Amino acid sequence: MENSILSTVDRHASSESMTSRDYYADSYAHFGIHEEMLKDSVRTGSYRAAIVNNGHLFKGKTVLDVGCGTGILSMFAAKAGASQVVGVDMSNIIDQAQKIIEANGFKDTITLVKGKLEDVELPIQQFDIIISEWMGYFLLYESMLDTVLDARDKYLKPGGLIFPDTATLYLAAIEDQDYKEEKINFWDNVYGFDFSCIKGIALREPLVDTVELKAVVTDPCMIKHIDLLTARKEDLAFAAPFTLTATRNDYIHAFLAWFDISFECTHKKIKFSTGPHAQYTHWKQTVFYTPSTVTISEGQKLYGMLSCAPNARNNRDLDISIMFKFDGEKETKVDYKMCVILPEIMLPQLWCPTV
């Protein structure tokens, strides 16, 4: 995502006192992360097609860009004919965005506001369109969507549009023995020593990675659909039942999650997927390893429940639980925690403190 609206970071805080929220906010001032996202042709190209190719929706309209980052979406909107665009961001990258906007001749059309959306005063009180690239890993990681919903409730005109306007989260099961052996079972024997106490911690940390389609052993199941025009913040904590039907005789080592995004209000629908069947995106997919290997036969159904909620200590982290079982058998439940700390080199890396 281009950036998010979050609380101010004390840049003089020590690394020991900084939370994952602080690192997240600080990290988006670094150009490297924006470079990765801008080079994601699926992501950026989809937004460009949805905005620039629908000038009839933007011509003469006012547009609010929530989490504007480098200003790329704001410039797409201005190019599409918007009369005025306001971009909001609290990261220091907005200082570079101002220079980018001026260099490209949009300073009379685009106004940038630095600060937290909930705290700043905008030059316009009602907007025709809200644009935002709010999605995180597992769709909801980083919890930026609640800020977009706040912007909708406070600033969007009746009948206004949101780009994108729908998001759908999917779950499937995968065979992943080799990588699970490397990532999880590795701790059983580390150069002849028993490190198995770390194994449980590693298992509870979802892995963000690319997975080949051939590893998927079940049909996918939709577990969450979000309509941004009607969704409430309370909807972002949920529990969803799922049924996964095996497509072949194989083994399950993990569950796999991904999401699809759609711009339903466009003249020609623009959609993209982050799934294993689709072109690579920087969101990749999210892998949840199971404690033990599950044997499944073609046509057999695995039943379960996935629950997801913001972490009580840091609402940008996610607490995720997956319960699963075969019909008539005892259920298995695993609690996962999805959280991130970005080190100084600012390479995305999932990490959860154990305290």
Give the secondary structure arrangement, pairings included.
Elements: H1 20-27, H2 31-38, H3 41-52, H4 55-58, E1 62-66, H5 72-79, E2 84-89, H6 93-103, E3 110-114, E4 127-132, H7 145-155, E5 156-163, E6 166-174, H8 177-183, H9 199-203, E7 207-209, E8 221-227, E9 238-245, E10 250-263, E11 270-273, E12 285-296, E13 301-310, E14 318-326, E15 332-338
Parallel strand pairs: 1-2, 1-4, 2-3, 4-5
Antiparallel strand pairs: 6-8, 6-10, 7-12, 9-13, 10-11, 10-12, 13-14, 14-15
Helix pairs in contact: 3-5
Characterize this entry briefly.
This protein has helices at 20-27, 31-38, 41-52, 55-58, 72-79, 93-103, 145-155, 177-183, 199-203; strands at residues 62-66, 84-89, 110-114, 127-132, 156-163, 166-174, 207-209, 221-227, 238-245, 250-263, 270-273, 285-296, 301-310, 318-326, 332-338. It is an alpha/beta fold and 355 residues long.
Feature tags:
elongated, five-stranded parallel beta sheet, single chain, alpha/beta, disordered N terminus, Hnrnp arginine n-methyltransferase1, Rossmann fold, S-adenosyl-L-methionine, 355 residues, 32% strand, SAM-dependent_MTases_sf, six-stranded antiparallel beta sheet, 15 strands
